[in-house]
Design a protein that fits this description.
The protein contains 14 helices and 10 strands. Strands 1, 2, 3, 4, 5, 6, 7, 8, 9 and 10 form a 10-stranded mixed beta sheet that branches. It is elongated, with a radius of gyration of 32 Å.
């Protein structure tokens, strides 16, 4: 109890000294407040830049660990997309992979008020949005309910949305696919074509000048099947945006835990080869930023750490200067206290606490200013370009055979239940 009273008394004494000499303390602690503010701001902005770069990379190549899977015939023939889709779906279901998607690059004819435009289109599955951190300016990414709708759902970029006239998404604005118009649609062109509903808008990059859109792969397949029934298989074939000719073969992606990515890669390749038969080669590799194990953001981290250490050293020099000034100006007071029996440790403790109390106040002021700087509209608007509204996933484990060696996995895919699932 006496020790607690002594500490409380020393703190109160230090606070009184700060109040008495507030002008001197204020001037001497300006440097500390600036140092704390600078240190906090540099670390916060460094973390924001690193996260923005990481998420930009993940929007382009997927999150760690993203596996890209493709297959081709070794005899130069064309692999049937239906066979590949069936084999892919079987592998995804067998190993309980929660995040897997097909990606088809194609074009769709869309009528606008100023004419028909061939709009580059990515046909994907619903998990694509979280796998690639797709950001939404308005509306929301595709949901399971959208997959069940008969009318195709579209997510368009802001350029597309501007050419539509920016109708409220709550009104379920329609566009026409296939070069025809729809009554009461955003295009305002006569009726015909396939009715599609816009459910979301993605922000356009600064270099984008043309409209583009996402649609669900299953709904693209349904459109192709309907076109084949009406106009034949040639009319149903999707357009190759790169002019390569021939049918467009989807690419396939899955997002799996990094610790089992290598094992799962071999399993997927082996199972797909077995399902597709002889004469087919399957490739599967990682293309995310963590593929090679090196940290591509190490330079950013080192620069931030270097600046933070420098600022910290400058702040420490400021503290030393405060302590020296305090002792120099309190020489007579210290002498009087010593003459009345104060011990050296008590004098040292009182001087130290005065510096600590003043430094805490200055540090709190510096942190407050730093928060205001980081949360300012200018900084937030810059950092929002790299942040994604999607929440981080929970950890999950695909079902892999527990004890069999890799060679037998394709023949004996016995599965164990995952320990956790991503909601």
């Amino acid at each position: 109890m006496r020790g607690v009273s002594a500490v409380v008394g020393a703190l109160l004494e230090a606070w009184q000294e700060v109040r008495v000499h507030r002008t001197r303390v204020l001037l001497s602690l300006v440097g500390v407040a600036v140092a704390v503010c600078s240190l906090t701001t540099v670390v916060a902005l460094g973390a924001i830049v690193q996260q923005a770069n990481q998420e930009l990379s993940e929007r382009q190549s997927g999150r760690p660990a993203s596996l890209s899977v493709s297959a081709y015939r070794t005899d130069g023939g064309t692999l049937a997309p239906e066979a590949m889709d069936a084999a892919w779906s079987d592998v995804v279901e067998r190993y309980d992979i929660s995040y897997a998607t097909r990606v088809v690059q194609t074009t769709q004819s869309v009528p606008f008020r100023d004419g028909i435009v061939q709009v580059p289109t990515q046909a994907v599955d619903q998990p694509f949005g979280e796998m690639h951190r797709v950001r939404m300016a308005e509306g929301a990414w595709f949901t399971e309910r959208d997959v069940q709708q008969l009318a195709p759902r579209l997510i368009v970029n802001e350029i597309f949305y501007d050419r539509m006239g920016r109708p409220p998404l709550e009104t379920h604005p329609m566009v026409a696919l296939g070069g025809q118009g729809l009554p009461n649609a955003a295009s305002g062109i006569p009726s015909g074509g396939v009715r599609a509903v816009v459910v979301g808008v993605t922000p356009s990059a600064t270099w984008e000048i043309e409209p583009s859109m996402y649609m669900l792969g299953s709904q693209l397949q349904a459109m192709q099947a309907a076109a084949a029934g009406e106009r034949g298989d040639a009319a149903a074939a999707p357009s190759d945006p790169y002019g390569g000719g021939g049918p467009v073969i989807p690419s396939y992606e899955m997002w799996v835990p990094p610790e089992i990515a290598d094992q799962l890669t071999e399993v997927v390749k082996r199972d797909l080869r077995a399902a597709l038969g002889t004469g087919v080669e399957v490739t599967a590799d990682r293309r995310d930023w963590a593929t090679y194990g090196d940290d591509p953001f190490l330079v950013t981290k080192m620069v931030v750490i270097g600046i933070a250490v420098l600022v910290l050293l400058l702040g420490a020099l400021g503290l030393v200067n405060i302590a020296l000034v305090t002792v120099k100006q309190r020489v007579r007071e210290i002498g009087i206290r010593r003459s009345f029996g104060a011990t050296a440790s008590r004098v040292f403790f009182a001087v130290m606490l005065e510096s600590v109390v003043a430094t805490v106040v200055a540090g709190a002021a510096g942190v407050t200013v730093s928060i205001l700087v980081v949360q300012s509209p200018a900084v937030r608007s810059s950092s929002d370009r790299g942040w994604s509204p999607t929440s981080p996933r929970s950890r999950w484990t695909p079902r892999l055979p527990a004890s069999s060696p890799p060679r037998s996995w394709a023949r004996s895919p016995g599965c164990s239940r995952p320990s956790s699932r991503c909601a």
